[in-house]
């Protein structure tokens, strides 16, 4: 389709008088609308930055969900995640009887978050007092504050319906690590254990 002379002059005047990024795009859109057909516009990498964008041009509503990554933000723009917990019992130095065991492989040195749950935990003592202690271990070393304990006098019992054990390890080396949920006892209780248990670990890295 041929553009009339009058429209051609107006188009040239528009481009020559105020050549901005928005004018360029709108002019190309006008040209396509007048001439028809399909066109591809190639914009060089990193050619559109802060100077080319009008204030308020990019808003939350215009950003596609999950399209941004942490590397798209400057240092300090994202909040630093943190957490606290009440101090639980530290596990015994050794795992004792292993209830559950999983392998964790980390690609870079860093810490790991471990969590275990025990359901219907019970302890019944014989003639003398006894105790049982559950805890989470990594490579047979106790993870701080991941222990819980049952204890009772002779011919007595103790128990919980449900208990969660969780904590953060010290820095681990890259490679394979073994995570265990263990049980140690004192006083030789005739009945001790749990009806259900789960164990998991998540490598955090860094």
Tally the beta strands: 9
What percent of residues adopt helix (DSSP H or I)? 10-25%
Number of domains: 2
Rough outline: elongated
Cα distance, first to last residue? 61 Å
Instruction: Just name the CATH architecture of the largest domain.
Output: Sandwich
In the CATH scheme, what's the topology name of the largest domain? Jelly Rolls
> How many H/I helices?
2
Strand content: 35-45%
- Low-confidence stretches at least 5 residues in length (pLDDT < 50)? 11-16, 31-42
CATH class of the largest domain: Mainly Beta
- What is the average per-residue confidence, as pLDDT, rounded to a whole number? 78
Task: Give the helices and strands, then pairings.
Elements: H1 5-17, H2 21-35, E1 97-106, E2 112-124, E3 130-138, E4 141-142, E5 148-152, E6 157-168, E7 175-186, E8 191-193, E9 196-203
Antiparallel strand pairs: 1-7, 2-6, 2-8, 2-9, 3-4, 3-5, 3-7
